Amino acid sequence: MPITSIIDGIGRTSLLEVSQLAPAGCARMLMKLESENPTGSMKDRMALAMIAAGERSGRLRPGGRVVEYTGGSTGVSLALICAARRYPLSIVTSDAFSIEKRRHMAALGAELTIVPSKAGGMDADLTRGMIEAARRIAERTGAFWTDQLKNEDQLPAYHAMADEVLAQTGGRIDAFVQATGTSASLRGVAEGFRRRGHEIQVVAVEPEESAVLSGGRGGVHRIEGVGAGFVVPLWRPELVSEIVPVSTAAAMAMSRRLARCEAVFAGTSTGANLVAAIEIGKRLGPKATVVTVMCDSGIKYLSTELYNGTSDHESGDH
On the CB side of 223, how many CA atoms lie within 13 Å of its CA? Predict the structure, then answer.
């Protein structure tokens, strides 16, 4: 049956068994293919949840302006929802994030404010600068600020994602591994598991160069969309069994291997997820099941060092 809106295509994504990259003795590795969402990103789920909550509460009225700061994927997802629902959108982003994301947002009608970065990297100063720019726009225009770093309205979208994972695995899952940006997806999925009575090991992934959740210092990294550089408001350490830092280089190398060995074309955060998931899977052993997330499509990163051919190519061995 045809859907009546592009929004109806959000969620209910496939779960893929990653068979080629999992080493001998590793747990069964499963990956949620969030690239199947309309913009190619898991952020479609949370963008729809935040806008719908704003509508229900009356904070967002018909034709009202929306504003957000974003590394790109949230902005693209908000641009999709706002285009479908006829809301003007102001996005604060940066040259630290791919041109594909910025062009995608603009194509869907978003008005962009670009905050310059330090040599193309992400760090705490950049995050705070984007937040302040979004605050000023909201103050000046009276826009509805979705404020993703603090907005708990997005959590039910990830409770639903947890329900999907449990249904797809028949509840047979030992660990869930996910990179942390706002921390909403990790927290929401963890809460979803607990609400269903499942005690599952939940593993957070963060950039090694900015491992603040692990107690380290903030720094500059190039894993887009994760690692804010400070402990984010939605972070709940009591829900997390372990934190695994992954370097930008290791994440990018794994993303490229994933494309060649599994034909899964993903972004850098997905590579970070898989590096950590394999580490956990080797510890748990072949009788266990580990689920991780393909956060978004590699199409969003074609111009970046991840796929633009300027980095050394690893061998095709796996």
Answer: 33
